[in-house]
Amino acid sequence: MKLSILDQAPILSGLKASDALKEALNLAKLGEELGYTRYWIAEHHNLSGLSSSAPEIMLSYIGANTKKIRIGSGAILLPHYKPYKVAEVFNTLAILFPNRIDLGIGRAPGGSAEATNALSDNFLEQVWKMPATLKELLEFLDTNDLERKESRVIATPLPDQAPKPWLLGTSKKSALLAAEYGMSYAFGHFMSDYDGVEIIKQYKKHFTPIKEGDKAEPLITVSVICADTTREAEELALYNYAWKKMNESLDINVTTTTKDPSKMIETFNRERTLEKLKRNTVIGNQTEVASELQGLKRMYDVEELMIVTIPSTYQERTRSYQLLAEALL
Asked: Which residues form the Luciferase-like domain (predicted)?
């Protein structure tokens, strides 16, 4: 089994954005040390609990301080940007960190309506144009036949090895678009209410190789809380749920250091809340989590699982990824 990391660069309670970004690097370095395949950092905007608004900048920082782990975006939200600029940025990263760069693409707004309006004009129109915009981006990344591009601009500088494009999604629509364009596909198991197994089957069935030897390459992203004991993992999951609820209602201008998620946990029906959380999050000790992840791998028929983990401290996050590596890598 291949394991990878999805990081949302959370600003945990009592800490600052500077702490979150330093810990993002620490997590990537840990992943490299433990044998994780890739580290992706997400893009979010105007959210008080997350510091991942500029993944392309973080990838420069992380790439310069790691050696071999693949690094990428999970995802660049294409409706906000021009494909040409995205290609230039990721071509530059691919030159700086050869054969290590993944360009994950998404279509979500990534934040509030106000942030969406501040980032781009006519977002919904750009979402509707996503297939054409994505195709344009892929053409900019394709350096195999530059002669046919003499009449158009080229996304320089040109790397020897282009960034690897991935499409991220949670629906059949995104899976079929990835298949049509011969892209690798990352399915968000932890945030989808659809039949993910069927979606991955459809992706594989309709995959169209762009060049000889191309194969469908799916992965699934799973939310995991793993700890030394089941009880501890459940407590961390409840804390994480409270932290998310707290940040959903927290104004971006209000510091998180004054908010304590543990106070909110006292208002929960613990049993009912845990039952709800376990629908989309794998929670438990090392043996329990490893067994459930192996079951997901078989059920989806994929080789790679990408793990997102947000407990109450960065030390607990480190421990969760260590336990997974010990059991599955």
From this structure: 1-297
